[in-house]
Design brief:
264 residues; mainly alpha; Butyryl-CoA Dehydrogenase, subunit A, domain 3; 3-stranded antiparallel beta sheet; two-stranded antiparallel sheet; 5 strands; globular; FAD; flavoprotein; Acyl-CoA/acyl-ACP dehydrogenase
């Protein structure tokens, strides 16, 4: 994705901004870097790049608003009510006024049910964010497995640890492949399935990486618990992986067949 020198420079600038700021400050920094212009001109590149980086760096910004607003034909820079798991609705504010509604570290507030909004583009964006979260958790667990020594050897040499890391890797890679297909065929069902796969991959990463890290993953000093909390919140936005899987099954039953999204 970053072989092009110009794209590599953009990636480094985005990563630098995300490593140095978060929330409203990052929102402003990305606006100065041309996030909205990128979303208009090169969405197929900008969305995977920016949202994966959000996941990998563990930072946050209310950029999902821009994706949903643009999909609705509205200008970016504002906010829009979005459905959340369980039939509730939320708004991701463009401020640093965090709420205890979801996780306690995000400016996400519950609101009354609103009119439906375009979901496909937002689900793909969240899918990339969840993939980034999964990769971040896998990286932390892998490094711990290499560094932690038990019985005179790194725990990375233990078969059970290897199996957990391998299952996480396969889940994350599979989710990314599903998102690539959804980008090539950006219809509602493909985007729904991609978001469900990404949510399930992030939850798989959370489960296995927590086991690999053990008690240290629960501590405030370690980054893993922050990625897990973020993955849980993102999975619920625009439909959880469980809800979307059920919805996909209902669609397939109604149609009487499953579409071929990728030719293998």
């Amino acid at each position: 994705m970053t072989a092009d020198p110009e794209l590599q420079l953009i990636t480094e600038s985005l990563r630098s901004a995300m490593l140095s700021s978060s929330g409203a400050k990052l929102d402003g920094a990305l606006a100065e870097l041309g996030w909205l212009d990128m979303l208009d001109e090169i969405p197929d590149t900008a969305v995977p790049l920016v949202f994966q980086l959000l996941g990998e760096t563990g930072t946050q910004a209310p950029l999902l608003n821009d994706v949903v607003l643009r999909a609705a034909g509205l200008p970016g820079g504002g906010t829009v009510p979005m459905p959340y798991a369980g039939g509730s609705w939320v708004v991701w504010e463009r401020s640093d006024q965090v709420a205890s509604t979801l996780g306690g570290d995000l400016p996400i507030h519950r609101v009354a049910q609103r009119d439906s909004v375009p979901l496909a583009a937002g689900r793909r964006a969240l899918g990339w964010w969840l993939v980034g979260c999964g990769r971040a958790m896998l990286s932390l667990a892998r490094q711990h497995a290499l560094d932690r020594v038990q019985f005179g050897r790194p725990i990375a040499s233990f078969q059970a640890v290897r199996h957990r890391l391998a299952e996480t890797f396969v889940a994350v890679e599979g989710a990314e492949a599903t998102l690539q297909v959804a980008s090539d065929h950006p219809d509602d069902l493909a985007s729904l399935l991609a978001k469900a796969a990404a949510g399930q991959a992030a939850l798989t990463a959370a489960r296995h990486c927590q086991q690999v890290l053990g008690g240290i993953g629960f501590t405030a000093e370690h980054q893993l618990h922050r990625h897990i909390k973020r993955a849980l919140v993102l999975d619920g936005l625009l439909g959880s992986s469980h809800e979307l899987t059920r919805e996909a099954g209902a669609i397939v039953r109604e149609r009487g067949s499953a579409p071929r999204l990728a030719h293998l």
